[in-house]
Amino acid sequence: MKNKNAKSVEGLFGSVRFKRPVQDIMRDVKESDKDAIVQRHSQYRSQMKIFKLVVYVPVESERQVRLALGNAGAGKIGAYDYCAFVSKGAGHYRPLKGTTPYKGEIGRVANVDECRIETVCLEKDLPRILAAMREAHPYEEVAYDIIPLLNDKYAKYVPRKRHP
Q1: With contact defined as beta carbons under 8 Å apart, do 157 and 58 qualify?
Q2: Contact 125, 19 (CB under 8 A)
Q3: Would the pTM of this model clear 0.85, i.e. be above it?
Q4: 134-138 long-range CB contacts below 8 Å, 24 or more apart?
């Protein structure tokens, strides 16, 4: 049976549901310990380094790569997962001698319809997510960026909006 008074505490990368109301839990904590709890929580939050992963893929491989990223744990934002932004554009590259290009010819500049997939992930999950990206991506050389974010530091200013 669910406790109707139970509260959830939500952050950027998930929520924690307490069986007892948060007010009851904090009431049971000694006043002198409350600062220590807040400090420990802040230290924990600061250890969760968030990154944006951007990867460029040929249009026909966008879905495959995007789902592989989500399956590996990328794209978790609060109570949502598989979050990503996809935009279309044109990629340009010239395969050099010794390569085996997915598209294009050695020595000639290729113009390819590509998608830019942007998603977020925690630093601890990056090795698994990058391995999944490599496995799903058809290109010999993958063009990608890993960008550190400050979202965790400012998440308290952008709480989840509840819709009726």
Answers
A1: no
A2: no
A3: no
A4: 135/68, 136/61, 136/64, 136/65, 136/67, 136/68, 136/69, 137/55, 137/57, 137/61, 137/65, 138/57, 138/58, 138/61, 138/102
Which two tokens mark 127? 């090795």
Q: What is the pLDDT of residue 1?
A: 47
Which SS3 state, helix, strand or coil, does residue 125 take?
Answer: helix
pLDDT along the chain (164 residues), means of 10: 48 48 56 59 61 98 98 93 97 96 96 98 96 97 96 81 80
DSSP at 23:
H
User: Domains in the chain, please, with CATH?
Assistant: 50-150 (3.30.70.120)
| Residue at token pair 């249009």 | 59
State the Cα–Cα distance between residues 105 and 100, nearest whole angstrom.
9
In b/e form, how buried is each residue of 63-76, taking b as 16+ CB within 10 angstroms?
A: eebbebbbebbbbb
